[in-house]
């Protein structure tokens, strides 16, 4: 009896011990889980509050309201910083390898911190940072549509701190500042104003921030530009190619180029013309110039494909402007070859073009001859199957033949563009406009349109590059890696915490 009583007592003690221990474990785990839930609830509430702050800061910063308030919530620490992070915009290679910093300024931020997690407003976006990295809660003020970037830079220009139950008051600080376009600011090397369309080179946006990983992810999803990250410097950069020269261009030096970038597929060239002034042999264009035996051409040589359009003047035209213009015969050839096919060279020609009128002519300005060519004119015809320009053009078309005869017939296979699909036999005619639009369409979205010129054996002609130029317009592609129009403003606000 005594042993059974002792066993019963020991069992009761063990049961009570296990019960107490289990209850302690449940309480401990329950307390931890409850704390986790409370932390997550506080963070979720902070994200919602920061998103509200984002929206109301945009109202004030973009000039749609003067004062806005947001209740941020309870718990955690809040901080307003004016110098946290910066944003820089560079226009690289806008001319001859020169780079211009168009904008560079701090962004500032409003942040909430609790239990190792930060939720922050910066640059018009809300970011969440924790041990696993940074994620975007709401997007920044960075709007890329088509080839247009609209970037109102929302800057926080105050400092403050608070904890617990906090309310933020947002006020506009200073007037909106127009950054780009802005005719009062100019590029250093060219003195040209900041204006659209953006020409040449690349435009890049770089953000230095604690939340740079989130900025980089946003750049990747919003554009197809080249996005890079520098972890050491905590920066994210997106580089957008410009759509190059769409409009007037200066005439390049011999074998120099006019960059064509972001040109749309198909027959997208809408206007291509040039005016080439011939000087007196010293390149100064001071009158009395001779056009004797001159030829000029534009050509493209990219990968397996090559194109050239050349205009030649006759030998006896040397004193054309001194003696008064006479109706002389000009010659125009268009060539094309694709070595990835079995076809030979396409040759188009017209050797009976009047020099005194029409889309291809020789005008006179202040005593100097000026070669004028409208490559997109529908009033100038060429005949398929031969050539008449016998000068040494930029591309050696005879060597490209490689013994193959010119294709007869050949087919332009751009269905629906300018009335194609069309097959041509020797002797068939087509306009210079359609030939230009068709052959340009063979070179993809980027290529260099080069110039070439020279006098023949008996010629003394010299191109006056400084007083020559042209116009090239084309439809551009709707692609997130290109930029044509840039709209940047600086919008300053202050944030006070109570």
UniProtKB/TrEMBL annotation:
Which intervals hold domain DUF7308? 259-475
Q: What protein is this chain from? A: DUF7308 domain-containing protein
- Chain segments carrying region Disordered: 399-420
Domain of life, per the record? Archaea
InterPro entries in UniProt: DUF7289, DUF7308
């Amino acid at each position: 009896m005594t042993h059974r009583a002792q066993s019963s007592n020991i069992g009761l003690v063990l049961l009570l011990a296990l019960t107490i221990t289990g209850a302690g474990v449940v309480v401990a785990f329950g307390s931890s889980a409850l704390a986790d839930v409370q932390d997550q609830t506080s963070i979720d509430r902070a994200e919602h509050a920061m998103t509200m702050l984002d929206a109301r800061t945009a109202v004030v910063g973009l000039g749609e309201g003067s004062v806005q308030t947001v209740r941020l919530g309870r718990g955690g620490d809040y901080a307003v910083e004016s110098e946290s992070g910066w944003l820089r915009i560079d226009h690289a290679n806008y001319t001859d390898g020169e780079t211009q910093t168009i904008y560079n300024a701090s962004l500032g931020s409003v942040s909430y911190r609790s239990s190792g997690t930060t939720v922050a407003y910066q640059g018009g976006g809300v970011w969440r940072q924790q041990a696993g990295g940074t994620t975007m809660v709401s997007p920044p003020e960075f709007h890329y549509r088509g080839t247009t970037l609209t970037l109102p830079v929302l800057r926080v220009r105050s400092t403050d701190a608070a904890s617990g139950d906090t309310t933020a008051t947002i006020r506009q600080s200073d007037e909106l500042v127009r950054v780009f376009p802005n005719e009062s600011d100019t590029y250093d090397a060219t003195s040209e104003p900041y204006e659209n369309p953006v020409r040449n080179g690349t435009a890049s946006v770089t953000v230095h921030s604690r939340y740079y990983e989130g900025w980089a992810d946003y750049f990747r999803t919003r554009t197809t530009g080249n996005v890079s990250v520098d972890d050491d410097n905590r920066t994210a950069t997106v580089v957008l190619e410009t759509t190059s020269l769409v409009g007037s261009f200066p005439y390049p030096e011999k074998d120099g180029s006019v960059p064509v970038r972001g040109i749309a597929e198909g027959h997208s060239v809408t206007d291509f013309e040039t005016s080439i002034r011939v000087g007196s042999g010293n390149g100064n264009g001071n009158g009395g110039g001779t056009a004797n035996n001159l030829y000029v051409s534009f050509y493209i040589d990219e990968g397996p494909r090559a194109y050239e359009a050349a205009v030649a003047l006759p030998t006896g035209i040397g004193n054309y402007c001194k003696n008064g213009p006479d109706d002389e015969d000009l010659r125009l050839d268009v060539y094309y070859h694709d070595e990835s096919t079995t076809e030979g060279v396409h040759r188009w020609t017209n050797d009976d073009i009047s020099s005194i009128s029409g889309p291809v002519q020789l005008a006179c300005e202040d005593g100097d001859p000026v070669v004028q060519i409208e490559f997109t004119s529908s009033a100038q015809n060429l005949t398929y199957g031969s050539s008449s320009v016998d000068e040494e053009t930029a591309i050696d078309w005879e060597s490209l033949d490689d013994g193959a005869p010119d294709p007869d017939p050949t087919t332009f296979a751009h269905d629906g563009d300018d009335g194609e699909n069309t097959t041509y036999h020797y002797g068939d005619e087509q306009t210079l406009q359609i030939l230009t639009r068709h052959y340009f369409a063979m070179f993809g979205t980027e290529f260099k349109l080069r110039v070439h010129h020279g006098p023949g054996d008996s010629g003394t002609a010299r191109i006056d590059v400084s007083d020559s130029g042209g116009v090239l317009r084309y439809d551009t592609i709707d692609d997130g890696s290109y930029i044509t129009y840039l709209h940047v403003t600086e919008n300053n606000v202050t944030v006070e915490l109570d």
